[in-house]
Automatic annotation (TrEMBL):
<keyword id="KW-0399">Innate immunity</keyword>
<feature type="coiled-coil region">
    <location>
        <begin position="38"/>
        <end position="104"/>
    </location>
</feature>
<keyword id="KW-0175">Coiled coil</keyword>
<dbReference type="InterPro" id="IPR012677">
    <property type="entry name" value="Nucleotide-bd_a/b_plait_sf"/>
</dbReference>
<keyword id="KW-0539">Nucleus</keyword>
<feature type="domain" description="NID">
    <location>
        <begin position="149"/>
        <end position="239"/>
    </location>
</feature>
<dbReference type="GO" id="GO:0005634">
    <property type="term" value="C:nucleus"/>
</dbReference>
<dbReference type="GO" id="GO:0045088">
    <property type="term" value="P:regulation of innate immune response"/>
</dbReference>
<dbReference type="GO" id="GO:0005737">
    <property type="term" value="C:cytoplasm"/>
</dbReference>
<feature type="domain" description="NID">
    <location>
        <begin position="250"/>
        <end position="338"/>
    </location>
</feature>
<dbReference type="Pfam" id="PF07292">
    <property type="entry name" value="NID"/>
</dbReference>
<keyword id="KW-0963">Cytoplasm</keyword>
<dbReference type="GO" id="GO:0045087">
    <property type="term" value="P:innate immune response"/>
</dbReference>
<comment type="similarity">
    <text>Belongs to the NMI family.</text>
</comment>
<protein>
    <submittedName>
        <fullName>Interferon-induced 35 kDa protein</fullName>
    </submittedName>
</protein>
<dbReference type="GO" id="GO:0005615">
    <property type="term" value="C:extracellular space"/>
</dbReference>
<keyword id="KW-0391">Immunity</keyword>
Length: 356
């Protein structure tokens, strides 16, 4: 090897050494940065742990406060039994309510035709300890979601057994089975109603007797607005018309005050719409407010809610399979009075009424 080659080799080794020395310095710098990040992460970890401990302590304190409030509520519920001192105020309230009802009865209104049934009861007792009572029979509408069913048994004991078992395996055919969950059917029922206040609207009238017309609703509404906008019919400018839900009646709202009173005082109208002439009744529109309505949970004694039902067969076949299963005494069942199944993707409204 010549001298020039040796010098070049020495120069190449020096360059390599300098490069390695730079890499070493870079690694040391990265190591220091990593150590700093580690210290930072450890501090954040300790801070998060401290916050978690504080959150747990706060949750325990809130739970203790809730338990204390619960105990106070229980004491208050016992004190509510002492109602004798509140009877005088209740009597005054009843007198005011009676006076309000008398004023409402004096309103010259022709009420819309609608069948109504009152079912009540009379309790015997001393008049000084038993205020006047209005008993009403609630009709509860409960939404039934898809993938569920309602089963009503003749015997409440059967329903209790089905709920106690919980999970049920239903046979669909010779090879197919499915699991469903049985739950108690719990409804919220009114237990106390303190006051119903009614206020007569000066801009609105209630129109009834419209079911006799065969026109489509859109056309009927337009012609009603036109009819009651005319001065010769005691009308005025109509602001808007509202179709009442689950009813053929509508509410007309007028721009000017006093138009509603004129229409009601005139009485029933013979309205010519197209080739049809029918009587339309106009009455005052009353707005009501319910004060202090208290509800309490109530379990249906004979009806069971079934959930988690897969959509695997047609509705009629599924309903039949459920009814067959829950009729078997070996499965804890008994005589089924009614069975309703709602497939997944659909919904229904179940109407519950108090049994006689």
């Amino acid at each position: 090897m010549t001298m020039d080659q040796i010098l070049k080799e020495i120069e190449r080794c020096q360059d390599t050494w300098k490069s390695l020395e730079g890499d070493c310095l870079s690694l040391k710098a990265n190591t220091r940065a990593s150590e700093q990040d580690l210290v930072k992460f450890q501090e954040e970890y300790e801070l998060l742990g401290q916050k978690l401990i504080e959150a747990e302590n706060e949750a325990q304190a809130q739970e203790a406060s809730f338990q204390k409030k619960l105990q106070l509520e229980k004491k208050d519920s016992k004190q509510l039994m002492q109602e004798k001192l509140a009877l005088e105020n209740e009597l005054k309230h009843l007198e005011q309510l009676h006076a309000t009802q008398e004023q409402i009865r004096k309103v010259p209104a022709a009420l819309p035709d609608r069948e109504m049934v009152f079912k009540g009861h009379v309790e015997e007792g001393k008049m000084e300890s038993l205020p006047e009572m209005l008993s009403f029979l609630p009709q509860i509408r409960y939404p039934v979601l898809g993938g569920s069913a309602l089963i009503t048994f003749e015997d409440p004991e059967v329903a209790r057994r089905i709920i106690q078992i919980g999970q049920h395996c239903i046979q669909l055919d010779e090879w197919s089975y499915m699991d469903v969950k049985a739950e108690a059917m719990t409804l919220l029922l009114p237990s106390f109603l303190k006051q119903i206040s009614l206020k007569q609207s000066s801009h609105q009238v209630l129109l009834s007797g419209l079911s006799a017309f065969s026109l489509p609703k859109d056309q009927l509404h337009d012609k009603l607005i036109l009819f009651f906008s005319k001065r010769k019919n005691q009308g005025g400018e109509v602001d808007h018309l509202e179709q009442l839900p689950n009813s053929d009646n509508v509410v007309l709202t007028f721009v000017d005050d006093g138009v509603a009173q004129r229409i009601v005082e005139k009485g029933p109208f013979l309205v010519l719409l197209g080739k049809e002439t029918h009587q339309v009744k106009a009455s005052h529109c009353l707005h009501g407010e319910i004060a202090d309505l208290q509800l309490h949970p109530s379990i249906c004694p004979r009806t069971v809610l079934l959930t988690e039902i897969p959509d695997v067969i047609e509705r009629e076949m599924m309903c039949e399979a459920l009814e067959i299963h829950f009729q078997k005494e070996s499965k804890g069942g008994g005589e089924v009075e009614a069975a309703v199944y709602v497939p997944a993707g659909h919904y229904a409204v179940a109407v519950f009424e108090e049994e006689d």
